[in-house]
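cron nightly-structures :: item 1 of 1
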Amino acid sequence: MTYDEINIGDSASFEKTISETDVYGFAGITGDFNPAHVNQVYAEASKFGKRIAHGMLSGSLFSTVFGTRFPGEGSIYLSQSLNFTAPVFIGDTVKATVTVIEKLEKGRVKFETVATKQDGTVVIRGEALLLPPRA
């Protein structure tokens, strides 16, 4: 969608179940081998009691929405704020939802970004700024 086709309140989502393979793959790609993510014994002694997925793994699902669904191909991600509010565990299904909250000058659009788990728990809340494709 182009800037002119986007309206305040427009929304789109993407859902993914986080697997052990996702966590190890993300660790390998980023180099983040924090034991909270990859070491079961360490994680069992943590406040969460088991391994947690990388917060940025769940946060990256917003990029999936923006680049493939809404506004879609050709969108340029300018900025993103993320507040992590609850852990995501292996096996959780995360739904990343983006909603237009403001259309700005120079063709930019501000989005509310919210990620929830299968039980409705909000795991991430933030805002993003995008430059959608031009007509």
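cron nightly-structures :: done
The helical segments are 20-30, 35-38, 40-44, 55-59, 61-68.
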